[in-house]
Structure formats: C-alpha cells, structure tokens
Amino acid sequence: MNESAKNEFGRLLVNQDALLEVLSKSHGSLTDYPELQEYLARKNPNVAQYSKALREGEFTRQEYLDEIGERLNWLAYELQSHIDMEFLVNRVASIVGDDLNKIKTLTIEDIGADCLSKLVNLIGHAVYSTQQTKPSYPFLATKGQVDHLFWKQSHIAYDAWVDGYQSHYKLTNYCQDQLDCKAPQSSVRFFRQFGDPRDIAEWREYAGFTFEASN
Fold it and tell me: Would you say which domain of life the source belongs to (predicted)?
C-alpha cells in the first residue's frame, strides 16, 4: 500500500459515517459481525426501498419470499449439471420405483435428512465451482499456520461433529483423544458452511483421499 492509499485509508477509519457508508455497500462480507451486518443492511438504499414497499402494502414478506423461492428453485435446477445426483436418484428409486407421480409426495423423512443435507452441501460447492471467485478453504491457506494433521483427518472430525460434538470445546476434546490433534477454531464454522470435506474436490486432492480406499 503506497502512502496516498494509506492516507485515504486513515481518513476513512476516523470518519465513522463515511466508513459505514462504504461498508453498507458490501455488508454481505461481514458474516462474523451479525449485528453490524444487520445495521448496515438497513442503511442500504435498496433495502430501504424494500422496507418502504412492505409498509405501504405493495407486497407481503411472504410474497417476497415466494418470489425468492421460485428463483432459487430455477437456479438449483441449473446447477444439476455440476452435481453428481446419482446418490439422490438411487435413494428415490429405492422408495418409489417407477412411479413418477409418487415422487411428488415424498417428504423430508422419506428422502432422509442425511441425503438432503448432502444435496444442499453439494449445491453450495457447485455454486462456487461456477464462479471465478473460489472459497477460501483453511487447509489451503498460504498465510499463517495450517494444522495439516487436523485438516487431513477433518472428514473424521466432521463425522464426530455430525454425531453430536457440535461445540468447539467438545470437538477439540474428541480430536485430542482420537486424532492426536486439536480442532482449529475455524473448524466448526467450516463444517457449518461447507459440510463434509469429502464432498470438496480440493480437499480430496489435498488429503489424498479417495472413496475407493475408504471403503
């Protein structure tokens, strides 16, 4: 950063109103600061227009959500070509056979929470795969210290997390007992955001993991 950039950055830091205005235009990146994120979202002019339309009865919040849902359904459909859906097809086929109409009546319980959770995670990975900006995976970090002993075994830690070791305290105790390492602070957030490491191609390459060898 050159001196001019440093000076501009310094002026921005001491001018809270200007800083908030800048942040409000990219508040989506402030996931670690939920209260600030919510406050800045309200300052966004488009959000203000949305709130005004709600107050004036132009549409309801549910109608707005319905429109979002319809768009998300279409986007999920477009992402199918980026996802190996065979596990889902096999699951549904095991329930309905050749009865296409019965598919329309399937519930979450019918398909299975684990199956649907895997699908949601795969959709998330597919979203990133279609974008130029890739997610920042902690096991590929180039700065700071990376606990490779943990991350190369993180699929085992993920299974433990799913089985109930949901807090960082519980997970790190499990890892110390079973994997001879500690769980990084970022691990629980990683599992919540990305799901099973085995579903991430970059992790499989990093860890030298293959499904054939694990069976």
Answer: Bacteria
Residue 97 gets the label, from left (phi > 0), alpha (psi -120 to 50) or beta, of left
In DSSP notation, 30-85 reads -TT-HHHHHHHHHHSHHHHHHHHHHHTTSS-HHHHHHHHHHHHHHHHHHGGGGS--
With beta carbons less than 8 A apart as the criterion, state whether 111 and 91 touch. yes
Residue 180 tokens read as 């001879």
Range of the domain at 26: 3-55
41 with 84, same domain: the answer is no
Per residue of the chain (215 residues), what is the pLDDT tens digit?
A: 457 666 766 776 777 776 666 666 565 556 666 776 677 677 778 888 988 999 999 999 999 999 999 998 888 888 888 888 999 999 999 999 999 999 999 999 999 999 999 899 889 888 887 776 667 788 988 777 889 999 999 999 999 999 999 889 999 999 999 999 999 988 998 998 888 999 888 899 999 998 776 66
Q: Are both 173 and 204 inside the same structural domain?
A: yes
| Tally of domains within the chain | 3
Name the token pair of 95: 């329930």
Q: Which of 55, 80, 98 is the last residue of a domain?
A: 55
Q: Point out the domain boundary residue: 129, 160, 176.
A: 129
Same domain assignment for residues 95 and 156: no
Q: Do residues 187 and 157 lie in contact, with contact meaning Cβ atoms separated by under 8 Å? A: yes
